[in-house]
Batch of 2 targets.
Target 1
Amino acid sequence: MVLSAGRPDASLVEFLELRARSESITRLVSQAVVAIVLVTAGLARLPFGTAVVATLGGVCFCYAAWGLVDRIRTYSIEQSWPLTAHYLEFLGKLFVAIGVISGIGFIFAVLFIALGSPWIL
């Protein structure tokens, strides 16, 4: 049996990488679909919490999409497709950057609502 727990002193990035790589593809796809639904519902129906719901959905979607792209990238490396693996690595980094920007936007949205500012996305 393989120990799938991370190191006790692992960083948040290492923890998220280990978690995304250990999740099933079905779970990652369902998480991406739920995140898309969350973003659409947040943009359509919640006038006061639009920014919070949209940015949180963006973070969840980028996490799931990065996990899927990483799986496909690993498969393309195993199949000796270096150009495809290179492009998928770039796409994965793009999802990480968008996820980080969405996370920062989520923090700002929560802070603006907590401070009582009428910040609207």
Note: Residues 82-115 form the longest helix (34 residues).
Target 2
Amino acid sequence: MNIRFQNLTRVLYFCFILTFLLTSSGYSQEETAKYPSRPITFIDPMLPGNSGDLAIRLLGKEAEKYLGQPIVVVNKPGGGGTIGAAAIANAKPDGYTIGQSSVAASLFVIPYFEKVPYHPTKDLRQIMQYSAPNFGVIVKADSPFKSFMDLIAYARQNPKKLTYGTNGPNSLSNLLMEQIAKKEGVQFTHIPFKSSPDFQTALLGGHVLFTAGDFSHSLIESGQTKLVLLLAEQPRVEYPQIPIPKDIGYEIPFPGMISVTAPKGIPDEIAKKLEEAFTKGMKEQAFLKGMKDLRLPIVYRNSKELSDYVAHNYEFFGKLLKDSGLTK
């Protein structure tokens, strides 16, 4: 009798714990099965009109067809992407607030310099990647600098006079430029700006000699600016004649992704629905045409591949920053 009572107690205790876990997590099996039953908020850590912002609006329209609910993009720029990342990480993990990882520094660099309210790998769940941002070194079209090595030659002859703009200190572009300067034994003068439109305006006004970061392809095609180095890990068909860092001897990675991210505790079933919907959406002709118009590449990683990519780069840059004496 005592044994039966003990067994019954264990069963009841297990049921209580299971019920507690399901209700305290904010969703039930029934709610998960019906997901989504209302609009989904999509947090974008960039300003409206940015190429990454336009890309998710393109993909969101196509993913809506498979989810059956609207995807409402909400821009939360600032802090080098950390404000948006924090909003995603701290959202209720029910699938109704997700977002975009389009600022690599917010995952791989800034958390090593500043205390941020999230951990890049422990508090975010990577859903899928569909593109990568266009980052590069840009000069004015009428600049005497015809290549990136012309900039290095100028810096060698004119210490600290080679000025460049990025969208902030500790950005990935800033880190890469300083690593290159260190390798070449030269000194650049970094001038941080709040956004890429700001530093592009400064370049056109002659206030900096080059910029490093995302760029406007329309300014390049209109003959106002010139791309001399593409900051990417692989060559791009959109810019076939432009070298990437490793083409000119710089073995420094420049990870970049435009992807879908969710809070860590999101149920597996909901994460799978989101991954399937966005993956199907990126195969739609309207999305493919829109990305071609934006000059953005199609770069796909599934959830596991993207999670591994983020974890690898988070660890890599932690070691790089420590070995460079930039962090403890």
Note: The domain at 35-133+256-323 is CATH 3.40.190.150 (D-Maltodextrin-Binding Protein; domain 2).
